[in-house]
Design brief:
Chain lengths: ~450, ~475
């Protein structure tokens, strides 16, 4: 795909399952938004894909199908790590022609709640991310700026409702540096179908308004496609097969409730680049009272905020220590009173997203990653706790480690002594190859 | 034998004009001289460069004003507010010229990281736009964690009232006109093509001059004063003794430079230059769809940047002066919308008119391949994040008149068809649902046009592609 000298075109697509009233909400039974990008002899610039629309948060519903906007003093908020991104629960990208799934990320909002704050600075979150996604890395200000935004509340001269957004979809496939051949002649994906599952109101919102809900209007997908030059088009039309390599995200879920937490998965992936996991007390998930996108340390006592420290971490492959040949013994193992993050655990976690030395912007700080107990995310000055555990599998060759036949394991010695189960969301970054030919698609993991 | 793949590197001199093409082990010398302008006045100055070496792209022009009190240059663009027009001339050829340059800098300054404004630009250019949280809890008092707003942050702390619910941030002493600070403007800012090319001055036999036309003091666009404490309408005169050109010249090995000259009797390169299209509208006109002919006929246009300035007779009573672009206003709590499209070669750039405010912002990002470091209120007035209780130089930061609210609504378009624009030129369609009533606005469009430069036997020429 060297000759992409042709011009580009903008495309704007409405959802293929657009409800008749043009509003989309989980509450009203439209939890899935589908977009179909038809097969065509053009290339999609994956990173140009944006979901645009307007998002409104209502504390109670009204007879006209909309609702009452919360006041800035009302207890109703969204995650300040995510803004509008928190509405996404799952993304599935498949071929429009063959229906084969190319990439599917479950717990997508949970993935983004760890990924986005790790790779964007506080200034970016208050700046351009606030314009495109309504993000605001402060709990109180998040509430004021998005849920309590009164835009559209007065029928006089109403132009649109709520908060406008234009968000990208960070997935391995769409963020690939290669342009995506949409041709259906064998050399491309045969169009794309992008399916977004919305998060339940109880996961996206947090507060004390039990009938609160969110609603989307004017939702569209925009993207940019490359019109191949004549020579390129000719080659494209003759191409009967093709491959594309990208870094995919796979997600796994496990609960832990013991001082010896063991996580073990058959990943089935041959080129694993990095693994990271985040935690949250299971009772906080899908619970309107709490922010379900918190990435907390393990907590012994939710009422007092007593932290259950992770004292030791061991990563294994097939029962052998790998990639670290040693135990990660945290500072809290020797000094139970320590409130600072363990530097090794921290560094390995950040390193799992992208090379630690290349991280120039992050919201990770001693404020957001520490072992000071808390009972609610509103006790944070910034976007919330950003704790996690992770490890990069291959920082040198970029080809990853093979977990096709052997299990991936994490063994953690924790201070979790009370009956308080935690959900562990495990995300694996791995290299995958999409093979395309006349018979359809195959993803080589 | 096919030797076509074998490059003949013997005696080959790297492209010394193109920044980045020179090997890291190439010996290089630097020479600096401080040039006084050959014409130096309150409204105009001209510098004539020495025809030697290569002009370093980040050579600086120093500027300052003499004034009293705590007035400063506008928050967003700093000292750039002084320059109304800049031109680079070689012989009789205008290499690059930008009109309403300070207004364009209002757009370009958005792309400077807030941290850089705080730590560097404050002292280099007097740009100080940098946001931080103001921590006030729901009871209206100071809090450790609950931020009720965003406000301008410098290295000074605001004078806070007794319960911490509000305060005022004074201008920094280093940037007050009363202290006669001197700031600088980079030639690469004045003429953006110099970021990629360094002029081989020694190969040019003609006079090379840089001309700056200053904003007249009578327009009050040069500086802003502290609200209430100082009178509107102060005159900020340019301190002519400080108007200088700090020229840096780069030299390579003498033999290499001569070889480069002899190997390149004709030097050609392409670069971008901005052309301004400007017209005025009333509020009523903006509420109905306008189709503007913005030019570009027969040219290659890289992008179009637009701004809508609300005219003011007292621009010195606003944090940003008039280097702003007004967003649709809010009516009964409802945000207005801006609808736009760009017509080129009988096509519309966007399949559907752009309406979504966040999408407008995304289009700016796509056009520049860079993100503006501004917040949501500043771009589209959504969100009420700007603090209404913490002021800067007594200006209310959340104000749409004197503060920052909705005053960075710059819009950019990136034509994607790779085509020369036909004889009809570009047409811009725009419509605002709400704007401030009974006002006059200036709509500016800068077209980034592709030009070629040709240097042959010491004679320079340039033309549009």
């Amino acid at each position: 795909m060297s000759n992409l000298a042709g011009s580009t075109s903008y495309i704007q697509l409405a959802p293929s399952n657009h409800p008749s009233n043009s509003t989309i909400s989980y509450r009203d039974g439209n939890p899935i938004i589908n977009f179909i990008l038809g097969e065509q002899d053009r290339y999609l610039i994956g990173s140009s894909v944006r979901i645009i629309g307007n998002l409104s948060v209502y504390k109670t519903s009204t007879a006209d199908g909309f609702g009452n906007i919360p006041l800035s003093t009302d207890d109703l908020n969204i995650s300040s790590k995510l803004g509008v991104y928190g509405m996404l629960d799952q993304i599935t990208i498949s071929s429009q022609k063959s229906k084969s799934v190319i990439e599917s990320v479950r717990h997508y909002g949970r993935f983004l709640s760890s990924y986005l704050p790790n790779v964007s600075s506080k200034q970016e979150a208050t700046g351009h991310l606030s314009v495109t996604s309504g993000m605001m890395p402060n709990n109180t200000l998040q509430k004021i700026t998005v849920p309590a935004n009164v835009n559209g509340s007065d029928p006089t001269a109403r132009q649109f409702r709520g908060n406008s957004f234009a968000i990208n979809l960070p997935t391995g496939f769409l963020m690939s540096k290669e342009n995506i051949n949409l041709s259906g002649r064998g050399g491309g994906t045969g169009g794309l179908e992008i399916s977004l599952s919305l998060a339940p109101d109880s996961q996206f919102l947090n507060g004390s308004w039990t009938n609160a809900f969110y609603q989307l209007t004017d939702v569209n997908l925009i993207c940019e496609v490359i019109n191949p030059s004549v020579d390129e088009l000719s080659r494209m039309m003759k191409q009967t097969s093709g491959t594309m390599e990208y870094n995919a995200i796979s997600s796994y879920y496990q609960t832990i409730a013991s001082s010896n937490a063991i996580i073990n998965f058959r990943l089935g992936l041959s080129r694993v680049l990095g693994v990271f996991m985040t935690f949250i007390p299971s009772t906080y998930l899908n619970n309107l009272t709490y922010d379900g996108y918190q990435t907390t340390p393990l907590i012994n006592n939710l009422a007092t905020g007593e932290i259950a420290p992770i004292k030791q971490v061991i990563f294994t492959r097939g029962g052998e220590r790998l990639p670290l040949q040693y135990n990660l013994n945290a500072n809290v193992r020797d000094d139970p009173g320590s409130t600072i993050a363990d530097p090794q655990v921290f560094r390995n976690y950040v390193n799992a997203f992208t090379s630690f030395m290349k991280v120039m912007k992050t919201q990770q700080s001693p404020i957001t990653n520490n072992r000071i107990g808390f009972t609610d995310q509103i006790a944070f000055a910034d976007a919330g706790s950003m704790f996690g555990v992770g490890v990069a599998m291959d920082s040198i060759s970029g080809q990853g480690l093979n977990f096709k036949t052997e299990n991936f394991g994490v063994q953690m010695e924790t201070g979790l002594t009370q009956d308080n189960p935690h959900s562990a969301f495990l995300f694996v970054r791995s290299k995958q190859t999409l093979v395309m030919n006349a018979n359809g698609l195959q993803v080589l993991t | 034998m096919d030797l076509s793949n074998e490059a003949d590197d013997r005696g080959r001199i790297p492209n010394l004009v193109q920044i980045g093409a020179i090997g890291v082990d190439t010996e290089m010398d630097m020479d600096q001289e401080v040039l006084d302008p050959v014409v130096n006045g309150q409204n105009f100055c001209r510098f004539v460069l020495s025809n030697k070496g290569f002009l370093h792209s980040f050579s600086k022009i120093t500027l300052g004003v003499s004034g009293n009190g705590s007035g400063t240059f506008p928050v967003g663009i700093g000292v750039d507010s002084l320059i109304q027009r800049c031109a680079l001339r070689i012989g009789t050829t205008i290499v690059a010229e930008t009109d309403d340059w300070s207004s364009l800098q209002g757009y370009k300054s958005m792309f400077i990281d807030n941290d850089i404004n705080l730590e560097r630009e404050t002292y280099l250019t007097s740009r100080i736009l940098n946001h931080d949280f103001t921590y006030i809890n729901s009871a209206g008092a100071e809090s450790n964690v609950n931020a009720s707003g965003l406000s301008l942050a410098t290295y000074l702390e605001p004078n806070v009232n007794a319960i911490g619910s509000g305060g005022n941030l004074k201008s920094q002493k280093e940037i007050r006109s009363g202290n006669a600070p001197v700031f600088q403007v980079s030639v690469a800012d004045l003429f953006p093509f110099l970021r990629f090319n360094q002029l081989p001055l020694y190969m040019i036999d003609e006079q090379i001059s840089i001309e700056l036309t200053f904003q007249p003091a009578s327009t009050f666009k040069r500086c802003i004063h502290t609200k209430t404490a100082e009178a509107q309408g102060q005159t900020f005169n340019i301190d002519e003794t400080q108007t200088k050109f700090v020229a840096s010249y780069i030299y390579y090995d003498g033999e290499m430079m001569e070889q480069y000259r002899s190997q390149n009797p004709v030097l050609e390169w392409t670069y971008n230059d901005f052309r301004l299209n400007k017209r005025s509208y009333t509020s009523a006109q903006l509420l109905v769809q306008q189709t503007l002919e913005v030019g570009g006929a027969g040219r290659l246009v890289g992008k179009v940047v637009t701004a809508l300035e609300k005219t003011s007779l007292t621009p010195d009573t606003s944090m940003l002066s008039v280097t702003t672009s007004e967003a649709p206003t809010i009516s009964s709590g409802n945000n207005g919308i801006f609808t736009t499209n760009l017509l080129l070669n009988d096509h519309r750039l966007y399949p559907m008119d752009r309406v979504n405010p966040a999408l407008h912002f995304h289009d700016v990002v796509q056009a520049e391949q860079n993100v503006p470091h501004i917040i949501r209120d500043e771009f589209n007035r959504q969100g009420v994040a700007l603090s209404s209780t913490y002021t800067y130089m007594n200006y209310v930061q959340s104000s749409a008149v004197e503060g920052l609210n909705g005053r960075y609504h710059y819009i950019a378009y990136r034509p994607t068809r790779n085509e020369r624009i036909n004889s009809k030129g570009l047409q811009l369609e725009l419509k605002y649902s709400n704007v401030t009533a009974a006002e006059t606005f200036i709509h500016r469009s800068w077209l980034e046009l592709v030009k070629t430069a040709r240097l042959e036997n010491g004679r320079f020429s340039s033309e549009y592609v």
